[in-house]
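Deliverable D4.2, example record:
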Amino acid sequence: MNKLYPLICCVLFGFCQVEKVGNGSDITNTENLFTSLIVFGVSAEVSFVPASATVHKQLKTIDLNFKNELLELSNNDILLYNNGSNLNFSLTRLASKSYRIEFTGIEGRIELDLSRFATKNGISFGNAPFLWTIDNQLPEIVSTNKLQKVHSIDLREGNAILSFSEAVEGAEDLSNYSISYSDPNTIQAIKILRVDNQNYRIFFDSFGTKPMQVTVTPIRVKDFAGNAVSGGSFEINVYGFRKIGSLKEKRCDGSAIALDSTRILYSGGVNLGTISSTLEIYDTSTESSRLLTAQTTKSMFYHRSFKLPNGKILLIGGFESSFLTAASDKYGIVSSETFLFDPETETIQSGPSLNTPRSNFASLQLKDGSIVVLGGMTVVSSVIADLRYSNVIEILRPGASSFETLTLVLPTTLHSHGAVELSDGKVLVFGGLINRLDSPAGYNFEAYRLDLVAQTVVGTKTLQGNLIESFFSLEGERLFLGSGFRSPNLLVYQLNSGKIENYGTLSRSLGRTNFFSDDRYYNFLSGISGNSSPGPLEKVIHLSRDFSKIVDGLSIPEPKFCNATMNLNGKVYELGGSNDYTNYIKIAGGLNLANASSDSVWVYEAK
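Output generated by the structure prediction step:
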């Protein structure tokens, strides 16, 4: 076993009265029970700091060091849980008063229950049985009062931490708090346990299926001077999914864009092989949708939407309505059409046509408002033959009435790839497909750095894995490239050094992924897997911002892919989509040929 650096953590969970003496020792409380309770990780580093209940590394070993020789500790005296499930472990006696618990390295909520041991040794823990909980998923809300912070929890967790700025009296008694709930029929506090003299864990029960708010106010908790701890109420936000209505039409692979802080425009989409030409606006303030009178003159799906500097919405490309017709044997007529939607008048008109028809193209809006489209499919007919791809780049500059085709072209024809503007104004194009999805030579393992002003390729980097329909997040000089369809790799491109590093892998590949970032996690809410377990994502995945850990979150109530998503006011809205994977991937990039779509609208939020 590698040398481990212990972090001593005496865990105090309330006083325990002696009913019987184990071997002549006078055990009066938990302070007299342990000299230390030490937890180690897989590496030489300490796994976590129990006082703050934050896991940093995978857990592996717990050392129990007793002050007194009690009756011998056995496996039957211990219960070890991981997220509520029994965890297998081995127990070794190191010395007369020391034992080691070892188990498979794991992260999450680890609970060590010694209530059986307490019963065997005649130790009474009263109404607070010895239960030690470590939780690595709690963001925190900080206040300036003596009750310094409470941690937010999600719907699958049953506890939160109350942290005081100094030692206080009465904090371990629930009756010393006033607690109110946004939905008291769904959640209740059931007990509170002492972690140390400044931190207390409050347990909840009967979680429901929607986000809520718990307000905790100390009313009889006092500091050592005898002054009541006050300072108002402290809110615990409970995260989760909530269904908030329906679209007017069932839609998959449409496009959504925010018109303002409350309204989302959804255009096009496909359901059971029928492509839509309609538009509707979903209003988040009223949680309702309305179908507009205005329609596009051609149906469209797999297209893109952008807001122009003049406030109008530009809908670009995708597939048209002459879809899967017997006469043409087409799997999709690729469109060169664009449309302009005016949010003020709610009218739509034809926009400037693309010079090259495109679907499955990369697109982005530059800082100056220009819209750039790169590559894509230009012809999609039989699965066996006649799939054509483009390396052409077009740009629509602010105020221009037509797209301009650049002399610069991509180094290879590409589709289902990604593109992002870098901090220096260059554009990075990465991943995607050179050919068909099922072709061994179809994957693009390169990232190209383009100078659209000089119209030159200024750099090429080799990726570690194929990133088809991938996602990205640009933060200063660091570009996070997420997994893609058929690849679970998580890559970070350090733009200043040009170095690309693999920070690990997800348990499954996630192309066409809806994800958003907060100050702690990258959160994956939907996506479609193309590896050995194909289908939509079934649980939220949280990836820490330093890429050190991947944590499973809530179960997704209605797993879907190809749903339109929008992040507004700290909430993520998911509109439409499909959960029917059957026959979805027929052509590189994925066309939903005949599957049923959904009209449901969900929001992922902290209330």
